[in-house]
Input
Amino acid sequence: MAVGTQVAVESDAGTGRRERKKTATRAAIRDAAMRLALRDGVERVTLEQIAAEADIALRTFFNYFSSKEEAVVAGAAGDFRAFVAGFRDRPGSESVLRALHEAALVVLDQAMADDRDHLAALVVIRGERSLVPQLLAALAAQETVLAEAIADRVGPGQDEGYPRLCAAAALAALRVTLDRWLESAGAGAVPSLDGLRGELERTLGALAAGLDRPSRPE
Amino acid sequence: MAVGTQVAVESDAGTGRRERKKTATRAAIRDAAMRLALRDGVERVTLEQIAAEADIALRTFFNYFSSKEEAVVAGAAGDFRAFVAGFRDRPGSESVLRALHEAALVVLDQAMADDRDHLAALVVIRGERSLVPQLLAALAAQETVLAEAIADRVGPGQDEGYPRLCAAAALAALRVTLDRWLESAGAGAVPSLDGLRGELERTLGALAAGLDRPSRPE
DNA sequence: GTGCATAGATGCATGATGTGCACGAATGAG
DNA sequence: CTCATTCGTGCACATCATGCATCTATGCAC
Output
């Protein structure tokens, strides 16, 4: 490898060649899984194919992921982690939901700037029922982390249950918003990012304003 | 069978012996899976054991569930469905969140009155990481149904995204509340149902009042 | 009741998944 | 260079999951 080979996406724990190789292998597997799943459908791809595509032994696959689904979802899961990490970095002047909103926008921008196709993962997942559980599990894992971050942000001595409730509701809101956006994509190509931004604004606004509604009088 | 043999929990589609046998078999498998999972741990139970316990052929298992996890989670999934169905039955005089709250209380009461151990499922699931995805998937499935029910309740022409957002946030809130309650159970026995009721009240109240909070000034 | 059409249960064969174990090669530390 | 550790790999094995063919029970029409 020459000097400035390729990019340095993801969290390349730059310490030592070993670590670098590991993250590279992990990325290779993830991308291979995604590529094949996109081409043939998740169900019709075998681990053997993925291993071959990533140029590793079948047995090695399990050193990185415990199932095919986990590998395919890994990309999206990484974005979730980035989102939560981004939330932590928001200035304390922003309220909780404001910070969540801004963090979401930052992740969106990063995803667009990145070469990897972040949309592909979501599109595949939406189309394949078997991936939903894994995606939700990845989301739930971040929910715990996010709850801690929220607890740190609002400080102690507050409403005991607020952090987890807020984390769960916020992630649910983001999930629904993203889902509706992808749905509206459906036929056409990428439907304006601005539409997504607007939806985000409205959704989180609704969370802030309160979710109750009267029933239809009739 | 004599006159009043046993109970009639679940949704015994009472039409014909065939349907009755099917639901009975399904329940037998579900209960067998739960019993064995509770005794030995989900991972250490094989489908063969479950099939033997439920007195069916291994192959037959797959006529009812597509995986061991699905069978174990089936009980909880049924409660979710009951909850959403109960929501539909709430009078139109109640606001959306009010109706959700009442429906939750009704399901709780039913679960307590029932002979089947509804808590067991949740306890097992909490303890076994591999079940989380399946549970979340079951919840997500009901999220769609709930969103439709909410849409019907508030009537058309409203905020386009409200039903799904509300459904997702409400189910997330219920999940978190239940989880916190089970967590607090931990050591001791069943920690007062009234505690759970109170938590529910506060959680849904928070959803109604709005979730934003200022960050810690410091 | 008789006979038919269909749904469900079962067995068999087979591919795919996932894990424990052991060995060898690459890596990093001294 | 030497050693300890980590990681990749092959092998064996149990389990999971599905498609196909077959057999049986059920429901229905008459």
Confidence is low (pLDDT under 50) at residues 1-10 of chain A. Residues 18, 21-22, 25, 56-60, 63 of chain A lie near DNA strand D (CB under 10 Å from a C1').
